[in-house]
User: What shape does this take?
Amino acid sequence: MKSSTISLIVGLSIPLLMVVGIAIAITVPSRSIHPTTDFVYALGQYPTAIQIENGQQVQHLYSIKNNQITESTLTISQKPDIAPYPYQGAEAPRFYLHNTEANTNTEISFDELKKLSLSDDATSPDGFTMTYGSSSGGMFPFYYEGEGDRASAYLSKNTASKKVTVITKGNHVPFSFVAWVVQ
Assistant: This one.
């Protein structure tokens, strides 16, 4: 073989090996992580929901205190000639328990949610954080089209992440992370 042929083969194989190496570096870490901490998320207005109750606007505020979810309400006084904010008849948030090992979701009532021990820390007890789908600037960064993909969720740890299945109503009603379920 001529030295120019060897140089050509080496020159063409280096980019191919780099692409294969990058694909392996991206794929292998995500297959080796196994989150175990379940979490709760909400669909709808969370942590604040404003509803019309008995002809008055009532603000429901949900928060985690002492590892339990709490709900406080506030009646909002309103003049009759001013439209309600943000809109009438907003639904209360619907809560879902995500089983991370099975990657399944179960809707739970607020009463069931109050029985769980919860942590609203950014990091789960097993070291994972909740991240949302990537935002996209379109084909070029200066053509920004949208707010990103809030309908996708990932559990991330160090350099690896694992996509989790969550129930959403599209990008316009994204889910909201509530808390980790702690034992």
Notes: The CA atoms of residues 26 and 100 lie 21 Å apart. The chain has two helices and eleven strands. Helices lie at 3-31, 110-114. Residues 33-181 form one domain.
